[in-house]
Amino acid sequence: MSNSEAGGPATAPASSVQAASSAQAASSVEAASSVQSVDRAVAILEILARDGEAGVTDVARELGVHKSTASRLLAALDRRELVTQDTARGKFRLGVGIVRLAGAASARLDVVQESRPVCRALAQQAGETVNLAILSGRDALYLDQAAGPAALSPNHWAGRRIPLHATSDGKVLLAYLPEDELAASLVPPLARFTERTVTAVAEFPALLAEVRRRGFAAAVDEFEAGLTAVAAPVRNAEGTVIASISASGPSFRIPAGRVPALAAAVRRAADEISRRLGWPAR
User: Fold this and answer.
1) What is the CATH topology of the domain spanning 14-94?
2) Tens of pLDDT along 178-209?
3) Does residue 250 have a cis bond before it (omega within 30 degrees)?
4) What is the CATH code for 100-276?
5) pLDDT tier at 148 (50, 70, 90 boundaries)?
6) Pairwise CA distance, residues 172 & 230, whole Å
C-alpha cells in the first residue's frame, strides 16, 4: 500500500524533483551569466576611459575572454552609442551615449544641489510645500522637496512622476519645449484627474503662451481637488529651461487673491537658482 493510500505524505516523483532542480540550476546559471556580461561591459568602458581607445584583441586580452565574446560585448555597447569604432583603424573609444548619461547625471546633481537652500528658504517664506521638477518623457519627475511650516502632512512628491498637463510644474516644462517635442508630450487622450483637469490638447497653445508671458504657471484643483500650485522656470547657463520650482498647498490657503504674491516669490526663487547655475540675473 502506498503512502497516499495509507494517509501518509505524498512523495513527488523523482523525475519532477529532478526537473525542478534542473530548471532552478538553469535559472541561476542564466542570472550569473547576465551579471558577468554587465560586469564585463562596465570593464570595457573603464578600459576605454583609461586608455582612450582599444581594439577587440586588446579588450579580449585584458578581460581574459575569447575575441568573439569581446566583439559581442563591444557590438552591444556600440548599439547604445556607449562606444564607437574608428572603421579605418578598427579601434573603439567611448561614444556620445556616455556624454549624454554623464550630462544628465551632472545636470540633475547640479540643479538639486544649487536649488536646495533656495527651496528651503522659499518654503519657510511661503509656509507651503516647495518642489523641484524636471522633464522626464511625458512626465514631470520630482527631484526634491522642502516643506514649509504650514505643511503639516505634505504629499511626498520627490521621486514621483506626474503627467505634464495636470500640474503647474508640468505646464512650465511644456511651455518652453520646441514644437515637435511639445506635440510628442501632449498625445491624447490626456488623463483626467479632477473636473478641472485640462484634457483638450487644442487648449494648450494659448495656455502655454500665457505661461511664457507671465513667467509662471498655476494649477488650481487640476491634479488633486483642493490643491493649488504655482511654478516658475529654472534655466541653465545657456538660458535653456531645465527644471521648474513650485509652491503648493491647500486651495483654501492659496485663494485666487494670494496667487500673484506667491507667484512673485516663486519667480524670484527660480531666478536665484538660475543665477546659481550661471544664467544672468534679470
Assistant:
1) Arc Repressor Mutant, subunit A (1.10.10)
2) 998 998 899 899 999 999 999 999 999 999 99
3) no
4) 3.30.450.40
5) confident
6) 10
